[in-house]
């Protein structure tokens, strides 16, 4: 079988992001695969920036999603919803020619500082993806609460409950991606 390509999107930009740590754990669980990281440091959507087509970084970002056999989205919870950078990226991608997300297997996960784990962000993420008709896995839900305490110094998850949920989620994502050929 040819090597699968996994594209990752992290909705938090800060260097110490707990969602990025979680996302990188997902990459390790999904392996072996070619890993492409989608850079969400895009300009704010502005119709005046697309008179000559989408800006270069947007095209590059969309190409990485288009090339994916599977996508992992780590969605931080901001004020009970997804972060602005994630919504901005989805809006930009919708301006690129051709279907980018259609039928793409997608796994959503989240890590929060508090006890919620990001359930509301995950629900909002599903709604935000709906227009693009990807194949978002229904579960298992991976909601990492009190996330600052859930990773060791090497950025590895320490709680067996989360490790098992992530492992199952990545096995399902791999199976769906592989079945699409
Ligand atoms: C603007 C903002 C809004 C936030 N809103 C929520 C929230 O609604 N629910 C929640 O559980 N945590 C919320 N938090 C806390 C985040 O869960 C926490 O900062 C988390 O570490 C962010 O993800 P990151 O570590 O990947 O950057 C918020 C943080 C920020 C900066």
Number of helical runs? 5
- The figure for the number of domains is 1
Query: Which superfamily, in CATH terms, is the homologous superfamily?
Result: Flavodoxin domain
Biggest sheet architecture = 6 strands, parallel
- Cα radius of gyration in angstroms: 16 Å
Q: Number of DSSP strands?
A: 6
Note the main attributes of this structure:
alpha/beta, globular, Rossmann fold, 15% strand, binds flavin mononucleotide, 5 helices, 181 residues
Describe this structure as you would to a colleague.
It is a single chain. The longest helix is centred in the C-terminal third of the chain and has 20 residues, at 160-179. β1 (5-10), α1 and β2 (34-38) form a beta-alpha-beta unit. This protein is 36% helix and 15% strand. It has one domain (5-179): Flavodoxin domain (Rossmann fold, 3-Layer(aba) Sandwich), CATH 3.40.50.360. It is globular, with a radius of gyration of 16 Å. Strands 1, 2, 3, 4, 5 and 6 form a six-stranded parallel beta sheet that branches. The termini are close together. α1 packs across α5 (160-179). The protein is an alpha/beta fold and 181 residues long. It contains five helices and six strands, in the order βαβαβαβαββα. Flavin mononucleotide binds next to α1.
């Amino acid at each position: 079988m040819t090597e699968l390509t996994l594209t990752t999107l992290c909705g938090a930009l800060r260097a110490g992001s707990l969602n990025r740590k979680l996302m990188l754990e997902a990459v390790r669980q999904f392996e072996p695969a070619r890993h492409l990281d989608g850079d969400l440091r895009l300009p704010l959507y502005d119709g005046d920036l697309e008179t000559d087509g989408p800006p270069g970084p947007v095209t590059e970002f969309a190409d990485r999603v288009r090339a994916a056999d599977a996508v992992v989205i780590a969605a931080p919870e901001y004020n009970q919803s997804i972060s602005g950078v994630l919504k901005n990226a989805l809006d930009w991608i919708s301006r690129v020619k051709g279907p980018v997300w259609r039928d793409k297997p997608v796994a959503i996960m989240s890590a929060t500082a508090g006890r919620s784990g990001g359930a509301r962000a995950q629900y909002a993420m599903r709604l935000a993806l709906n227009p693009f008709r990807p194949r978002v896995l229904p579960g298992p839900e991976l909601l990492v609460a009190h996330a600052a305490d859930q990773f060791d110094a090497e950025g590895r998850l320490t709680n067996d409950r989360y490790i098992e949920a992530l492992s199952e989620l990545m096995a399902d994502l791999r199976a769906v991606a592989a079945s699409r050929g």
